[in-house]
Amino acid sequence: MRKVSAASGTALFFAAAPGVVAGAVPWVLTDWRLAGNLPAGLRAVGGALTFVAAVLLIHSFARFVIEGSGTPAPPAPTERLVVGGLYRYVRNPMYLAVLSAILGQALLLGQAILVPYAVVVLAAVVSFVRWYEEPTLSERYGPAYDSYRASVPGWFPRLSSQATPLGHDHGSR
What we know:
Layout: H1 2-16, H2 18-30, H3 40-66, H4 93-109, H5 114-141, H6 143-151
């Protein structure tokens, strides 16, 4: 039953957070209109980036249900620290995926307004991570999070997968 409620809560949070930040706000800013005189190749790169970002975002959200038995929403956190999947490479794959989706849409649509919007989103998420999320996770998960934080980069993914600081390689999940 915990997985069902975790999946439901995660789906709702997905719609409320990245659905708004990477979906509704870009739509309001651009009306999804193609603008500019960008080459088709750049638009294709933007479309691919947006698609890959969406897949990675869904994967990251799913880890919270599968591995953590909880949600990424602060009011309904995971029972266990999530360190598998993309979290083996970078601590903030959700935020990076959202930012990539916004920048992908900027290229796809040729809408320059999305670039400063992405900068605002970046400033907001970096501040949120630094001043709320990291202290909260450190308090909730203690030495496990501190070790994870020391061994996995926050914003620039490492290229190789390593065993997590908890001594488990979650690559097979």
